[in-house]
Amino acid sequence: MSSFDIVINILESFLLAFLCYALMTKKDNRSIFCIILLGVFITILTTIFNYLDNYGSLLVFLTNLTIILFAFYYSSDSIVYKLTISFFPIFLLDICNSFTSLSFSLIYQESISYLLNNGYYLNIVIISKGLFLFISLLVLVLKKKRKLRLFCNIDKSWWPIILTTFSTCMITIRTFTILFTGVLNQNDAIILFLNLFIGMISIILLFQNVQKESEHRLYSAIQIEKFKNNKESYQKDEEFYQKLKILKHDMKHIYGYMHELIEKEDYDKLKLYIEEKDHLAYEQVNWCYSNNDIFNMVLKRMSSKAKENNIKFEADIQIPKKLNIKDVDLYSVLSNLIENAIENSDSNNPIIRIKATMKSEFLCLRIENTTRDNVLESNKNLETTKINKENHGYGLESVKSILNNYHGELTFTMKETFFESLAILKAF
Questions:
Q1: How far apart are CA 412 and CA 418, in angstroms?
Q2: Does the pLDDT of residue 20 top 90, yes or no?
Q3: Would you state the pLDDT for residue 392?
Q4: Which domains are seen in the chain, by residue range?
């Protein structure tokens, strides 16, 4: 092993470590020197396999495993993100090596093996490593400026991405080996076939997840439109409520003015004045359930819906006026859970109870509805019972998704004849 190979080995290892640094978000209690240790570990690993003259799949596997273990120790990103980007450094390195080698081959119209053995090895290595460093710096700069959001808010639905990344990585490694040796042996063919199969299955799963996500986004878009329409209606009701408060405050002055008109026998003016105020008596008066506008908005709409279905509607809301929850998220959680309660209430004794309280920085929303049967026994997964199942059943999934963003959870229990939904989410 020449001095040049040792230098390249060290450079390559630390370039891989630097890209890991660019891709990962450091935990608060982790030191930046962990990156240097990662570079040292990869250098030692590569040196050992170099002396054993074995640059095969085992080295790639152990290098990826080292990066994965480092990611779990160093990074504060999600598990899926850690597993996904752990394959990326090796993958990018092979892409840079292959791209540079193929470019030289096309320019000089010679095979890659000929170029490597006839004085072009140094140029190919320097350019490929320079390209890798450039891309790593670009990733770092873009992430620092928050313009690069790789796999933001990913969850278990992104597992196909990990499989696709892994299979693509293995295919590029094998392709890179074939390009350099010019030989396709049986082992390479089997590995390529298996990884192509894994990649195909992963892409199918990914398309299924994309379809589900599209349906979820469509459902969310509909909820946002409902929210906008109801907010507009609520604002009008709020204006009317303020008018009533002013009217109540001015009532003694109004009575005094009307009494003076009667004493003066100015009945025409009195009639006009009564007609002017009379319209307020026929406008709908809205109950004020809470200081929070979103709770009032939803509870007003849902209480009207419950009244139409002859359901007794009770609400006890003890929360602050302002919560650190997006209006549309709070609206969606409340609407979905209360709507489910209305749709599934016992028709013989329809009652809905809603209670909202604060426990430390968490909002606890408890919604109860009477039910004939134990729903958790007859429908354990709470699947929709509506006819067009493909167009329904997204309500609870939407609620769970929102609660997940606020470090919350959704649980269901049966209490005698009442079915209880308990949603807890961080509000401050």
A1: 11
A2: no
A3: 35
A4: 3-218 (no CATH), 287-428 (3.30.565.10)
